[in-house]
Amino acid sequence: MNALRYPRRPTRQIMLGKVPVGGDAPITVQSMTITKTADVEGTLQQIYALAAAGCDIVRCTCNEIEAAEGLAQIVPRSPIPIVADIHHQYKMALAAMEAGVHGLRLNPGNIRRPEHIKAVASEARDRRIPIRIGVNGGSLDPELYDKYGGKVTPEAMVESAQREIAYFQEVDFDLIKISVKASNVPLMVEAYRQLSEVTDHPLHVGVTEAGPPPAGLVKATAGISTLLLEGIGDTIRYSLTADPVEEARAGRQLLEALGLRERKNVDLIACPSCGRAEIDVIDVAKRAMDAFGDRKIPLQVAVMGCVVNGPGEAREADLGIAAGNKRGHLFVKGRNVAVVPESEMVEALVEWAEFIHEHGTEAAMARADVEKAEREAAKDRSALLDAKGDDANDSTSKIVEIRRRSGD
Ligand code: SF4
After folding, report:
1. What are the chain's domains?
2. Given 17, 146, 352, 390, which residue has the most CB atoms within 10 angstroms?
3. Per-residue pLDDT for 98 more than 90?
Protein backbone atom coordinates (compact mmCIF):
# COMPACT_ATOMS: atom_id res chain seq x y z
CA MET A 1 0.00 0.00 0.00
CA ASN A 2 1.23 3.51 -0.71
CA ALA A 3 -0.08 6.83 0.48
CA LEU A 4 -0.58 8.49 -2.92
CA ARG A 5 -3.70 10.62 -2.99
CA TYR A 6 -3.42 11.21 -6.71
CA PRO A 7 -2.12 8.81 -9.34
CA ARG A 8 1.46 9.36 -10.38
CA ARG A 9 1.60 11.91 -13.16
CA PRO A 10 2.47 10.20 -16.44
CA THR A 11 5.91 11.15 -17.70
CA ARG A 12 8.23 9.99 -20.45
CA GLN A 13 11.00 7.64 -19.49
CA ILE A 14 14.72 8.24 -19.92
CA MET A 15 17.61 5.95 -19.05
CA LEU A 16 20.58 6.94 -16.94
CA GLY A 17 22.88 4.06 -17.74
CA LYS A 18 20.78 1.05 -16.76
CA VAL A 19 18.52 3.00 -14.39
CA PRO A 20 15.16 4.18 -15.80
CA VAL A 21 13.73 7.51 -14.66
CA GLY A 22 10.10 8.49 -15.32
CA GLY A 23 7.20 6.57 -16.75
CA ASP A 24 6.37 3.60 -14.56
CA ALA A 25 9.93 3.23 -13.21
CA PRO A 26 10.33 3.19 -9.41
CA ILE A 27 11.10 6.65 -8.02
CA THR A 28 14.87 6.85 -7.64
CA VAL A 29 17.13 8.36 -5.00
CA GLN A 30 20.00 10.65 -5.95
CA SER A 31 22.86 12.23 -4.06
CA MET A 32 26.06 14.07 -4.84
CA THR A 33 29.67 13.38 -3.89
CA ILE A 34 31.51 16.04 -1.89
CA THR A 35 35.02 14.88 -2.75
CA LYS A 36 37.16 16.50 -5.44
CA THR A 37 36.21 14.56 -8.56
CA ALA A 38 39.89 14.45 -9.54
CA ASP A 39 40.41 12.32 -6.41
CA VAL A 40 39.34 9.10 -8.09
CA GLU A 41 39.76 6.70 -5.15
CA GLY A 42 38.16 9.05 -2.60
CA THR A 43 35.21 9.72 -4.89
CA LEU A 44 34.68 6.03 -5.65
CA GLN A 45 34.78 5.22 -1.95
CA GLN A 46 32.01 7.74 -1.37
CA ILE A 47 30.01 6.43 -4.32
CA TYR A 48 30.17 2.88 -2.92
CA ALA A 49 28.99 4.12 0.49
CA LEU A 50 26.14 6.02 -1.18
CA ALA A 51 25.06 2.99 -3.21
CA ALA A 52 25.07 0.87 -0.03
CA ALA A 53 22.81 3.45 1.65
CA GLY A 54 20.21 3.25 -1.13
CA CYS A 55 21.42 5.82 -3.67
CA ASP A 56 20.42 4.91 -7.26
CA ILE A 57 22.12 7.72 -9.21
CA VAL A 58 25.05 9.90 -8.14
CA ARG A 59 26.20 13.30 -9.31
CA CYS A 60 29.80 14.50 -9.30
CA THR A 61 30.96 18.00 -10.03
CA CYS A 62 32.86 18.54 -13.28
CA ASN A 63 34.34 21.96 -12.76
CA GLU A 64 37.84 21.54 -14.21
CA ILE A 65 39.65 19.38 -16.69
CA GLU A 66 41.15 17.25 -13.89
CA ALA A 67 37.59 16.46 -12.77
CA ALA A 68 36.65 15.31 -16.28
CA GLU A 69 39.75 13.12 -16.35
CA GLY A 70 38.76 11.73 -12.97
CA LEU A 71 35.30 10.92 -14.32
CA ALA A 72 36.85 8.90 -17.15
CA GLN A 73 38.30 6.61 -14.46
CA ILE A 74 35.35 6.71 -12.08
CA VAL A 75 32.56 5.88 -14.54
CA PRO A 76 33.69 2.34 -15.45
CA ARG A 77 34.20 1.44 -11.77
CA SER A 78 31.03 2.96 -10.36
CA PRO A 79 28.20 0.62 -9.26
CA ILE A 80 25.57 3.29 -10.10
CA PRO A 81 25.14 5.80 -12.98
CA ILE A 82 27.14 9.02 -12.83
CA VAL A 83 25.77 12.46 -13.68
CA ALA A 84 28.24 15.31 -14.25
CA ASP A 85 27.24 18.60 -12.64
CA ILE A 86 28.06 21.55 -14.90
CA HIS A 87 28.00 25.26 -14.07
CA HIS A 88 29.26 28.17 -16.17
CA GLN A 89 31.62 26.20 -18.45
CA TYR A 90 29.82 24.43 -21.29
CA LYS A 91 33.15 22.91 -22.34
CA MET A 92 33.15 20.88 -19.15
CA ALA A 93 29.89 19.30 -20.34
CA LEU A 94 31.61 18.22 -23.55
CA ALA A 95 34.58 16.87 -21.58
CA ALA A 96 32.30 14.95 -19.20
CA MET A 97 30.51 13.31 -22.11
CA GLU A 98 33.87 12.32 -23.53
CA ALA A 99 34.62 10.77 -20.12
CA GLY A 100 31.58 8.53 -20.54
CA VAL A 101 29.13 9.93 -17.95
CA HIS A 102 25.56 8.63 -18.01
CA GLY A 103 23.94 12.04 -17.67
CA LEU A 104 24.56 15.78 -17.36
CA ARG A 105 23.06 18.47 -15.21
CA LEU A 106 23.09 21.96 -16.68
CA ASN A 107 22.10 25.11 -14.82
CA PRO A 108 20.29 27.39 -17.29
CA GLY A 109 20.97 30.29 -14.92
CA ASN A 110 24.69 30.22 -15.60
CA ILE A 111 25.15 28.68 -19.06
CA ARG A 112 23.15 31.17 -21.07
CA ARG A 113 24.59 31.48 -24.59
CA PRO A 114 22.23 29.65 -26.96
CA GLU A 115 25.09 28.40 -29.15
CA HIS A 116 26.77 26.84 -26.10
CA ILE A 117 23.56 25.20 -24.92
CA LYS A 118 22.87 23.84 -28.38
CA ALA A 119 26.44 22.57 -28.80
CA VAL A 120 26.05 20.52 -25.61
CA ALA A 121 22.57 19.27 -26.54
CA SER A 122 23.71 18.21 -30.06
CA GLU A 123 26.55 16.20 -28.63
CA ALA A 124 24.24 14.66 -25.99
CA ARG A 125 21.74 13.79 -28.72
CA ASP A 126 24.40 11.98 -30.76
CA ARG A 127 25.64 10.09 -27.70
CA ARG A 128 22.12 9.46 -26.27
CA ILE A 129 23.06 11.04 -22.95
CA PRO A 130 20.17 12.62 -20.97
CA ILE A 131 20.45 16.12 -19.55
CA ARG A 132 18.77 17.53 -16.47
CA ILE A 133 17.71 21.13 -16.78
CA GLY A 134 18.50 22.14 -13.22
CA VAL A 135 16.83 25.48 -12.52
CA ASN A 136 17.82 26.88 -9.15
CA GLY A 137 15.94 29.70 -7.43
CA GLY A 138 19.22 31.10 -6.12
CA SER A 139 20.89 31.31 -9.53
CA LEU A 140 18.06 32.29 -11.82
CA ASP A 141 18.87 33.97 -15.15
CA PRO A 142 19.06 37.72 -14.23
CA GLU A 143 16.89 38.62 -17.19
CA LEU A 144 14.04 36.46 -15.86
CA TYR A 145 14.61 37.79 -12.39
CA ASP A 146 14.07 41.33 -13.70
CA LYS A 147 11.13 40.30 -15.85
CA TYR A 148 9.30 38.97 -12.79
CA GLY A 149 9.76 42.13 -10.71
CA GLY A 150 13.13 41.37 -9.11
CA LYS A 151 11.76 38.28 -7.41
CA VAL A 152 12.20 34.56 -7.77
CA THR A 153 8.72 33.31 -8.59
CA PRO A 154 7.42 29.89 -9.61
CA GLU A 155 6.53 31.38 -13.01
CA ALA A 156 10.09 32.65 -13.54
CA MET A 157 11.54 29.25 -12.68
CA VAL A 158 9.16 27.43 -15.01
CA GLU A 159 9.91 29.89 -17.80
CA SER A 160 13.64 29.32 -17.33
CA ALA A 161 13.11 25.57 -17.80
CA GLN A 162 10.87 26.10 -20.83
CA ARG A 163 13.43 28.34 -22.54
CA GLU A 164 16.04 25.65 -22.13
CA ILE A 165 13.66 22.99 -23.48
CA ALA A 166 13.09 25.21 -26.55
CA TYR A 167 16.85 25.38 -27.23
CA PHE A 168 17.05 21.61 -26.92
CA GLN A 169 14.13 21.17 -29.30
CA GLU A 170 15.90 23.26 -31.91
CA VAL A 171 18.57 20.58 -32.14
CA ASP A 172 16.06 17.76 -31.80
CA PHE A 173 17.12 16.67 -28.34
CA ASP A 174 14.50 15.37 -25.90
CA LEU A 175 16.27 13.14 -23.36
CA ILE A 176 15.41 15.63 -20.68
CA LYS A 177 14.55 15.73 -17.01
CA ILE A 178 13.88 18.92 -15.13
CA SER A 179 14.20 20.36 -11.66
CA VAL A 180 13.03 23.74 -10.32
CA LYS A 181 14.55 23.77 -6.85
CA ALA A 182 14.45 26.52 -4.27
CA SER A 183 15.35 26.63 -0.60
CA ASN A 184 11.91 28.07 0.15
CA VAL A 185 9.50 25.13 0.43
CA PRO A 186 6.21 26.78 -0.67
CA LEU A 187 8.05 28.33 -3.64
CA MET A 188 9.52 25.07 -4.87
CA VAL A 189 6.27 23.18 -4.32
CA GLU A 190 4.36 25.70 -6.44
CA ALA A 191 7.08 25.79 -9.13
CA TYR A 192 6.93 21.99 -9.51
CA ARG A 193 3.13 22.03 -9.58
CA GLN A 194 3.16 24.59 -12.39
CA LEU A 195 5.92 22.78 -14.24
CA SER A 196 4.06 19.47 -14.08
CA GLU A 197 1.11 21.15 -15.85
CA VAL A 198 3.18 22.19 -18.86
CA THR A 199 5.56 19.30 -19.46
CA ASP A 200 5.65 15.52 -19.41
CA HIS A 201 9.41 15.27 -19.04
CA PRO A 202 10.40 13.41 -15.87
CA LEU A 203 10.96 15.62 -12.83
CA HIS A 204 13.84 15.58 -10.35
CA VAL A 205 12.46 16.91 -7.07
CA GLY A 206 14.31 18.55 -4.20
CA VAL A 207 14.61 21.48 -1.81
CA THR A 208 17.94 23.10 -2.53
CA GLU A 209 20.30 24.17 0.27
CA ALA A 210 17.95 22.68 2.86
CA GLY A 211 20.74 22.98 5.45
CA PRO A 212 21.95 20.74 8.27
CA PRO A 213 19.70 18.14 9.92
CA PRO A 214 17.29 18.09 11.64
CA ALA A 215 15.87 21.36 10.19
CA GLY A 216 17.19 20.48 6.72
CA LEU A 217 15.58 17.07 6.87
CA VAL A 218 12.26 18.59 7.87
CA LYS A 219 12.34 21.16 5.05
CA ALA A 220 13.36 18.65 2.40
CA THR A 221 10.80 16.11 3.57
CA ALA A 222 8.03 18.74 3.64
CA GLY A 223 8.71 19.79 0.04
CA ILE A 224 9.48 16.41 -1.50
CA SER A 225 6.72 14.42 0.16
CA THR A 226 4.06 17.06 -0.56
CA LEU A 227 4.85 16.71 -4.26
CA LEU A 228 5.19 12.94 -4.24
CA LEU A 229 1.79 12.62 -2.58
CA GLU A 230 0.35 14.69 -5.43
CA GLY A 231 1.88 12.24 -7.91
CA ILE A 232 4.65 14.67 -8.92
CA GLY A 233 8.27 13.51 -9.03
CA ASP A 234 10.25 10.73 -10.69
CA THR A 235 13.56 11.04 -8.86
CA ILE A 236 14.47 12.84 -5.62
CA ARG A 237 17.41 14.35 -3.81
CA TYR A 238 17.79 15.54 -0.23
CA SER A 239 20.27 18.47 -0.32
CA LEU A 240 21.60 18.36 3.22
CA THR A 241 24.60 19.99 4.80
CA ALA A 242 25.76 16.61 6.05
CA ASP A 243 27.56 13.47 4.98
CA PRO A 244 25.92 12.60 1.61
CA VAL A 245 25.27 9.09 2.95
CA GLU A 246 22.66 10.76 5.18
CA GLU A 247 21.02 12.23 2.08
CA ALA A 248 20.81 8.84 0.40
CA ARG A 249 19.43 7.20 3.56
CA ALA A 250 16.83 9.92 4.00
CA GLY A 251 15.72 9.65 0.37
CA ARG A 252 15.43 5.92 0.58
CA GLN A 253 13.62 6.05 3.92
CA LEU A 254 11.13 8.62 2.65
CA LEU A 255 10.21 6.49 -0.35
CA GLU A 256 9.86 3.41 1.87
CA ALA A 257 7.78 5.32 4.43
CA LEU A 258 5.39 6.48 1.68
CA GLY A 259 5.16 2.96 0.30
CA LEU A 260 6.75 4.05 -2.99
CA ARG A 261 9.74 1.69 -2.79
CA GLU A 262 10.06 -1.73 -1.31
CA ARG A 263 11.73 -1.93 2.06
CA LYS A 264 15.42 -2.72 1.76
CA ASN A 265 16.82 -2.13 5.24
CA VAL A 266 15.52 -2.48 8.77
CA ASP A 267 12.67 -0.12 9.63
CA LEU A 268 13.44 0.55 13.27
CA ILE A 269 10.46 1.75 15.26
CA ALA A 270 10.67 2.62 18.96
CA CYS A 271 8.32 3.95 21.58
CA PRO A 272 8.88 7.56 22.64
CA SER A 273 9.45 6.33 26.22
CA CYS A 274 7.50 7.49 29.24
CA GLY A 275 7.46 7.14 33.01
CA ARG A 276 6.98 3.41 32.59
CA ALA A 277 10.22 2.83 30.67
CA GLU A 278 12.57 0.25 32.19
CA ILE A 279 15.53 1.26 29.99
CA ASP A 280 16.99 4.32 28.32
CA VAL A 281 14.94 3.82 25.14
CA ILE A 282 16.83 6.54 23.22
CA ASP A 283 20.17 4.86 23.91
CA VAL A 284 19.00 1.31 23.14
CA ALA A 285 17.23 2.42 19.93
CA LYS A 286 20.35 4.26 18.80
CA ARG A 287 22.57 1.27 19.53
CA ALA A 288 20.16 -0.95 17.60
CA MET A 289 20.18 1.49 14.64
CA ASP A 290 23.98 1.45 14.63
CA ALA A 291 24.08 -2.35 14.88
CA PHE A 292 21.75 -2.78 11.90
CA GLY A 293 23.40 0.01 9.90
CA ASP A 294 22.78 -0.40 6.16
CA ARG A 295 22.36 -4.17 6.35
CA LYS A 296 19.83 -5.50 3.90
CA ILE A 297 17.30 -6.90 6.36
CA PRO A 298 13.87 -5.68 5.22
CA LEU A 299 12.04 -6.15 8.54
CA GLN A 300 10.26 -3.81 10.92
CA VAL A 301 12.00 -4.07 14.29
CA ALA A 302 10.66 -2.48 17.49
CA VAL A 303 12.45 -1.27 20.63
CA MET A 304 9.95 -0.75 23.42
CA GLY A 305 10.60 0.69 26.86
CA CYS A 306 8.42 -1.65 28.90
CA VAL A 307 6.93 -5.11 28.77
CA VAL A 308 3.65 -3.81 30.18
CA ASN A 309 2.55 -2.14 26.95
CA GLY A 310 5.43 -2.69 24.50
CA PRO A 311 4.59 -6.05 22.89
CA GLY A 312 0.94 -5.03 22.41
CA GLU A 313 1.71 -1.58 21.02
CA ALA A 314 4.22 -3.03 18.56
CA ARG A 315 2.32 -6.19 17.65
CA GLU A 316 2.48 -5.34 13.94
CA ALA A 317 6.29 -5.31 13.95
CA ASP A 318 8.07 -8.37 12.55
CA LEU A 319 10.23 -8.50 15.65
CA GLY A 320 10.70 -6.48 18.79
CA ILE A 321 12.08 -6.29 22.27
CA ALA A 322 10.58 -4.81 25.41
CA ALA A 323 12.32 -4.19 28.72
CA GLY A 324 11.18 -5.36 32.14
CA ASN A 325 12.84 -6.18 35.42
CA LYS A 326 16.38 -6.01 33.98
CA ARG A 327 15.45 -8.38 31.20
CA GLY A 328 14.64 -8.05 27.52
CA HIS A 329 11.51 -9.78 26.25
CA LEU A 330 11.74 -10.64 22.57
CA PHE A 331 8.54 -10.90 20.62
CA VAL A 332 7.74 -11.90 17.05
CA LYS A 333 4.51 -10.54 15.56
CA GLY A 334 3.32 -9.78 19.10
CA ARG A 335 4.08 -13.27 20.52
CA ASN A 336 6.78 -13.58 23.17
CA VAL A 337 9.58 -15.86 22.01
CA ALA A 338 12.56 -15.44 24.34
CA VAL A 339 14.00 -13.64 27.36
CA VAL A 340 17.55 -12.25 27.49
CA PRO A 341 19.50 -10.21 30.05
CA GLU A 342 18.96 -6.45 29.57
CA SER A 343 22.61 -6.01 28.59
CA GLU A 344 22.15 -8.34 25.60
CA MET A 345 19.01 -6.78 24.16
CA VAL A 346 20.62 -5.29 21.05
CA GLU A 347 22.68 -8.39 20.21
CA ALA A 348 19.58 -10.57 20.60
CA LEU A 349 17.55 -8.32 18.30
CA VAL A 350 20.19 -8.54 15.59
CA GLU A 351 20.50 -12.30 15.93
CA TRP A 352 16.73 -12.86 15.71
CA ALA A 353 16.39 -10.42 12.81
CA GLU A 354 19.07 -12.30 10.89
CA PHE A 355 17.37 -15.60 11.66
CA ILE A 356 13.92 -14.39 10.55
CA HIS A 357 15.36 -12.82 7.41
CA GLU A 358 17.09 -16.07 6.51
CA HIS A 359 14.55 -18.68 7.63
CA GLY A 360 11.22 -16.86 8.00
CA THR A 361 8.83 -16.12 10.87
CA GLU A 362 7.49 -19.65 11.16
CA ALA A 363 10.94 -21.12 11.66
CA ALA A 364 11.61 -18.47 14.31
CA MET A 365 8.42 -19.42 16.17
CA ALA A 366 9.32 -23.09 15.88
CA ARG A 367 12.67 -22.62 17.59
CA ALA A 368 11.14 -20.57 20.40
CA ASP A 369 9.72 -21.79 23.69
CA VAL A 370 6.69 -19.50 23.39
CA GLU A 371 4.94 -20.82 26.49
CA LYS A 372 7.93 -20.19 28.71
CA ALA A 373 8.64 -16.75 27.17
CA GLU A 374 5.02 -15.71 27.70
CA ARG A 375 5.07 -16.96 31.28
CA GLU A 376 8.23 -14.95 32.01
CA ALA A 377 6.81 -11.84 30.33
CA ALA A 378 3.59 -12.16 32.33
CA LYS A 379 5.65 -12.45 35.51
CA ASP A 380 7.64 -9.26 34.79
CA ARG A 381 4.54 -7.44 33.61
CA SER A 382 2.65 -8.12 36.81
CA ALA A 383 5.72 -7.31 38.93
CA LEU A 384 5.90 -3.92 37.21
CA LEU A 385 2.20 -3.33 37.57
CA ASP A 386 2.49 -4.20 41.27
CA ALA A 387 5.40 -1.81 41.67
CA LYS A 388 4.08 1.07 39.55
CA GLY A 389 0.39 0.36 39.17
CA ASP A 390 -1.58 1.54 36.18
CA ASP A 391 -0.44 5.08 36.82
CA ALA A 392 3.28 4.87 36.08
CA ASN A 393 3.76 8.60 36.14
CA ASP A 394 2.17 8.67 39.59
CA SER A 395 -0.09 11.45 38.46
CA THR A 396 -2.80 10.69 41.03
CA SER A 397 -0.59 11.51 44.01
CA LYS A 398 0.85 14.53 42.17
CA ILE A 399 -2.64 15.90 41.60
CA VAL A 400 -3.46 15.37 45.29
CA GLU A 401 -0.32 17.29 46.21
CA ILE A 402 -1.07 20.12 43.70
CA ARG A 403 -4.55 20.46 45.13
CA ARG A 404 -3.26 20.42 48.71
CA ARG A 405 -0.76 23.19 47.97
CA SER A 406 -3.28 25.35 46.18
CA GLY A 407 -5.58 24.93 49.16
CA ASP A 408 -8.34 23.23 47.18
S1 SF4 B 1 4.14 2.50 28.08
FE2 SF4 B 1 6.04 1.32 27.75
S3 SF4 B 1 6.08 0.99 25.56
FE4 SF4 B 1 4.59 2.64 25.87
S5 SF4 B 1 5.80 4.57 25.72
FE6 SF4 B 1 5.83 3.98 27.87
S7 SF4 B 1 7.72 2.78 28.10
FE8 SF4 B 1 7.26 2.86 25.92
Report:
1. 14-257 (3.20.20.20), 267-388 (3.30.413.10)
2. 352
3. yes
